[in-house]
Specification:
single chain, interleukin-1 receptor binding, cytoplasm, Trefoil (Acidic Fibroblast Growth Factor, subunit A), 269 residues, mainly beta, rod-shaped, 2 domains, 3-stranded antiparallel sheet, 6-stranded antiparallel sheet
């Protein structure tokens, strides 16, 4: 339904007052006066009244018309600029707040690769590591010609972020690979506790994913005894171990050197 107010009535009311027409009342209702004093004689206004909730649309449009009219009445030698919009846009649109945050977000690697070294490894019971199947590492005593079956460890060294410890704290992060293969020991959760397994991987590089921490072990050397241990970085307190019984899989334990062996001797390069 369209309603056209009498032009004389509109001219008798200053545009400084906001005119609203509610859905249940076709009479003009006064609202607080506008800050902008603008008159536009001879302008016909057609108002469409619809049923529904009042909104700010009419008020916003009226403020916009008044503001633009005021700008047009300014001296012509002043150019219109973006800054002129700021004086009335806050009245037309809902205010939006912004926050500027400055900073650098360069992501540092979790572990930075440095180099690799090869070692012969024996547990303190003098058992060697043998690759019995493509993914099964066992420990057993080897003598004579069978000694050629033992595998060497290809130990990849990493430099951690300072917050993760380093050589000064005696915790050197390494990855334990099988020389001649792309196989590396990894510690993962299985059922209710961690297990040690061999995975085919290429990790002679910076490790930027926390998920790859499963390949990292802290090498804990005891220079006085000439021995070392390997503690899982993903599961602190769990150590690479061998069984007291021969020909058993190399595993992981949280009770080192009690019912198993978690201390080793490394030799060669």
């Amino acid at each position: 339904m369209a309603f056209v107010p009498d032009l004389d009535t509109l001219e008798s009311n200053s545009l400084n007052e906001e005119m609203l027409y509610g859905p249940n009342c076709l009479c003009p209702q006064k609202k607080p006066r506008l800050d902008l004093e603008v008159t536009s004689p001879g302008v016909g206004i057609q108002v469409t009244v619809t049923k529904g909730h009042l909104s700010r649309t009419f008020r916003q449009a009226a403020v916009l018309v008044a503001a633009v009219t005021k700008l047009l009445k300014q001296p012509s030698h002043n150019d219109f600029s973006d800054s002129d919009l700021g004086s009335f846009f806050d009245d037309i649109f809902e205010p939006v707040s912004f926050q500027c945050i400055k900073g650098s977000y360069t992501k540092a690697p979790v572990f930075r690769y440095t180099r690799s070294q090869s070692f012969d490894i024996l547990d303190v019971d003098h058992k060697c590591f043998v690759l019995e199947s493509p993914t099964q590492l066992v420990a057993l005593h080897l003598q004579g010609p069978s000694a050629g079956r033992k595998v060497k460890l290809d130990i990849a060294l990493y430099r951690p972020r300072s917050s993760q410890g380093g050589p000064r704290s005696g915790r050197v992060p390494v990855a334990l690979g099988i020389k001649g293969y792309q196989l590396y020991m990894s510690c993962v959760m299985s059922d209710t506790q961690p297990v040690l397994q061999l995975e085919e991987a290429d990790i002679r590089r910076d490790l930027e994913s926390v998920e790859l921490t499963r390949f990292i072990f802290y090498r804990l050397d005891s220079p006085a005894e000439g021995t070392t241990r390997f503690e899982s970085a993903a599961f602190p307190g769990w150590f690479v171990c061998t069984s007291l019984q021969p020909r058993q899989p190399v595993g992981i334990t949280n009770t080192p050197d009690q019912v198993n062996i978690a201390t080793y001797e490394l030799s060669g390069h």
